Structure formats: C-alpha cells, structure tokens
Amino acid sequence: MQSNELDMARNSMSEIIEAARGKSLVDALRKEYWLDFLAEDEELAVASLFEAQGRKLSPETGLSMLALHVLGEEMQDASLVLPSTATGGASTSGTITGEHLSIDGLIFASGTGPIIAPASSSDGVVNVYELQGLDSSLSHLEISGIDADLNMSRFRCKVLSSCCAKLSLDWGAAEAATRRALAYELVALSEAMLEKTGEHVRERKQFGRPLGSFQSVRNSLADLYVAITGSRDMIHIAFQEKDGFSAMVAKAQAGQTALLAARHCQQFCGAMGWTWEFGLHNYIRRAQLLDSLLGSSAELVKAVGNHIASAGRASAFATESIG
Amino acid sequence: MPRGLELQKILADAGWIRAGWPETVGGCKGSILDRAVLYDELCDAGLEIPPTMEFVEIMGPMLTRYAPEIALEEFPLIFAGARAWCQGFSEPGAGSDLARLTTKAVADGNGYRISGQKIWTTYGHLAHQCGVLARTGEKDSAHRGLTMFWVDLESEGVSVRTIKAASGRNEFCEVFYDDVYVDSDRIIGEVGSGWEVAMYLLQFERGIYAWMRQASLRRELNNAIKECRARGLPVCEKAVGSAFLTLATLRARCWKTLKNLAEETPVGPEASVDKLLLGASETQVMDAIAKLLPDVFLLTDDPGAEAMREAWFLARASTIYGGAAEIQRQIVADRLLEMPRGA
Q1: Are A147 and A87 within 8 A, CB to CB?
Q2: By C-alpha distance, which of B8, B73, B65, B68 is closest to B42?
Q3: Residue-wise pLDDT tens digits, A95-144
Q4: Mean pLDDT of all residues belonging to chain B
Q5: CB pair distance less than 8 Å for A314 and B332
Q6: Using CB atoms, which residue from A219, A233, A237 is nearest to B326?
Q7: CA-CA distance, B286 to A278, in Å (whole number)?
Q8: ipTM score of the complex?
Q9: Chain B residues touching residue A303 (CB < 8 angstroms)
Q10: Does A138 touch chain B (CB under 8 A)?
C-alpha cells in the first residue's frame, strides 16, 4: 500500500462520507461498490474508509457492513449486535447460561433481516446466533453514550435459548476483520489529535516562547509519533497475516496509541482544548468508544499475553508480512 | 568477550558468518537482510548471537565503504573468529553532545599523533582494534573538524582501564591515548570527514544492531516463559503482552530500516524511531522477565540469576548509549514533527 495511493483513496472515502451525512453510509458504500474495492485490495479499502471515518468523525460506520460481509453473502441484511468488550480475547455480545441467552451490545446499522449476535456458551465456545420471533424495537434503544455524534443503538435482551438458532458462521474471521478496521480508525484519530495539538503548540506562546519549544511537550509528542508509526506497521502486518492473533495485537497497539494521544493532546491543548468549541473532545470521545469495541487495549494486551503463555513461547511475525 | 569470540569462531567454522558480506572482503554475497535472517534463526534455535558480532555489524559497513583496504585486512580475521573491534567515540566531556569531543590528532610525518581520553568504550579491554573519532581541525571546529582513525590497541601510548558497571560486570572502559602514532593509511574516509563516517555508522547501530537485540530479547523472553512454566508459576499476561507488542513493533520498524540499508537508501531522522523503540523494548522485556521470575531476579545466588540481573541492568543502558533517548526525541520533534526549536 503506497502512501499516495492511500491518500487518494482516503479522499474519495471522505467525499462519500460527507455526501452521506443525514443519509445511510452503508447504502452509499454499496452504491459506490466499496465491497468490490474490498475484494480487490482489502487493506487499501479498509484503511481508506476507516481512516476517513476517523478524520471526519463520521456519524456512521461501515463496521457492521464489513463484519456481515465476512460472515457471508446471506447475512448482508442482518442487524449485527457488535460486542462492546472482550473477555479473554474473544469478543461476544452474548452469553448462554442454562436456558437463557443474554445479549448486550451495539447495533450501528439496522438491517431489514434478522438480528444476529456472537455469543459464548458455558464452555467458552463462540458461535453466531440468530434471534427469532423477536420484535427488535422492544430491545433497541438509541443512545448517545460518550459519543453523541455516532449513530448507535444499544441492544439488550434475555431470551430462552430455544428462541434462537445457532448459525454455522465463522465469528473469528469477522472479529479479526473488524479489529483491523477499528485499528486503522484509531490511528487516524490519533493522527488527527496530534495534528490539532501540533497547530496549537506552534501558535500558543507562554513565557515568550511557543509551547512546542518546551522540552516536555516536544518529548511527549515525539513519543506519540513513535507510537503512531509503530501502530501503522503493526496493522499492515495484521493484514498480511490475516489471523486472529495479529488482529488482536494490531487493535491493542492502536488502542493504546489513541489513549496516549488523548492523554497528551488534552494536556498540551490546555484550557483551550478543554472547551467544547475547540473540538478536541470529539476525537477523545470517539477514541474511548472505539478502544472498547471488540475488546479494549487493556483487555487485548492481556489476551496477547495469554496466547503467548498458552503457546509456551512468543513467535515472531514473518518478515514477509512486514512489507 | 572471550566467549563471544568462541561463539564467533563456531559460527565461522560452520561457514555461516560470511553470509551477507561482500565477496571483495571474503564474504559470500547477499545483503544485510541475509545476516538479519541468520541472527533471527540463531535466536529462535535458542542460541546466543556472539556479542562480538554486534560490533562487526555496527562497524563493518563503515570499513567496507570508507576504508576498503582496512576491510580487506580485517574481515578475514573476523571470519576466522580471531578479531574483535570496539568504538572510541564518547569522552568525559562529550556524550550525547558528541561534536564537542576534544581528543586531538596532530599531523606528524606520514601519520598523526592522537592524544586524549575516551570513555564508555564497550569491550575496550578485549578488542584488538578501535575506531577512534578525533579532532584534526581547530578547537572550535565542532563536527566539521573530526576524523575517524583505525587504531591498533596494542600501539605504544594506549592504556585501558575497565569500569565496573552497575550490572556488576566489567564491560566498558576508559581508554587513554598518549601521543599514539597512527599511520595515514589508517584513516577511515577523509581527513575532516569523521562526522559523516560516524553518522553512516550510526544508521547500522539503529538498524542491524537493534534487529539483533529484538531477536535476542525474544529469546530471553521465551526462556523466561519456559522457566516459569517449568516451575509451575503463573505467567503475568499483562507484562508479557505489553513486552510482545513493543518487541513486535521494533521488529517491524527495524526490518524496514534494513531494507533501506540493503538498497543503500539513507535512513535519516526516521532511525531515531528505531532507537526509541529499542530502548522501550529492552526495558519492557527485561521488566517482564523480572516479573515472571521474581525469585530468581531478587533472591537467587547462581550464575543464571546473576546473568538475569546483568541483562536487566544492561537494558537500562539502552536508552542512554548511542545518543540518549532524549536526543532521539529531540530529533523526532525537530525533523519529523517540525516543532519550534527548543531553548
């Protein structure tokens, strides 16, 4: 993936996002053949769309569309309940205990088809379930949460296991694909925060000098630059490796970076950055939410450690994947 | 170090050490990438990279490029496992601010006479030859008046004193040069081009040296996990996960740098990113190991425990040597982020 190629594709995606404001982003992406683009060059299609979403603070996301595409053609119209956390590395929005299936997760784009959700049974096995005979409006609540600019609904319900059907779909692949996409969006948010803060510390003067000339400011922003560079390298590897472990590593890394960006940038933008008008908070809100989706960086770092401990050793990613 | 040379000889006898070096100096072709793969494979097989090879990797490319005749003499000895080098840059008054160094080299007949003191010369007491950066220009010539010399440490006027490190090991030295005569054909590059030569060398300290370290650190982390399991101890998932993330990032970064070096694309300020990631990886991996095996790290008296403590302390130096982390952050802030210059 060349950087000029990415710039061009990201610009087109930004235009699509802008044009779709107030309408459906998923419809717009379908009309623009984004899924064909995905089939042609997976990393470029994902990086350009999700980085544009991050930079534009898009009110809608193509995340469910991507996950459903990976789950299979017949799932295109489903409403997917995406997990807002992960336990032990596997992200599920549901759990089966005894007779019941309990679900708590987020829906980003309601489809006309059935409601489906990844859920784990008592033995820890994760499957995708279809809820049957349920009026979705009953359990479907539009929420603002920390990020009122993002259109999402919280879906919660508890049903008898007999009211749902286990589908033979591979959640692992969909989970990895969505984690890689979120990682690119988190990197874009980090870069946007760094740029905004860079502008501020170049202009704002105290003690007769720009803030950006003070060593503590420079050092921390340099660390952020290193974290962003490293996150990009790691996501690229995850797209080559295509497995669950590398996706977990990439999302953990990108989440950590976004949280670091939020912390440093909030500090260095000072009182200005703390105002609603300045707008830094929008990126911080989005970063907090996306870090938690499908497993936060804190959860995923532990899951990476657990994976290595179970394998008995850490294996290096192949140099062919580094690019 | 004697152990380093011993390992170097084993590798040499097995014919591995020539891989990736130019045929002109007795190597068997290939590039720096072939050498990188060799170090990775050694570590994944549970073997140690001979520490002497770190200096071959850091200084070898400088010799092949700027002093091909010296390279021709030296490499056969390296390939025979009979030679070790060291680096004479830092001085008591010039550490991260290297351009301030005061060791003088004054023209005398067909050569130069070097006088001054170098410090933190790793393996100075065991190496045969030293790359010495000295001032051939005026006192205030800063980085413009420097020249790199290849000095035989057996020369008259050289004296070496080891310094006991915080790790407990005598691994670095003070080296005193008292009117040491060096022939003009021992100059690496041109008179006055010492800074350029040193900067060329530093790219390899960022690229291949950092790569060797990521391979070694992975090996050490894996050994600790194995030991932890053998003792039936729980593995601290958070510490191992964090260490792996940083280490995997370092690996990706270094491989990209090595590809640039293989294509002879100058690395530039981006190399500071490699250096910062190296420091972060060293400290995180060694902290994770100490956390996995606290009994060994804190309370055990045997050579294995001693080695672990030495390695832990050595990791602490990684954010200091070769340009402190603060200098690297300054380079990133100035040249990659284009922040206003500091006071």
Answers
A1: no
A2: B8
A3: 998 889 999 999 998 888 899 999 999 888 999 999 987 765 567 788 99
A4: 94
A5: no
A6: A219
A7: 42
A8: 0.94
A9: 237, 241
A10: no
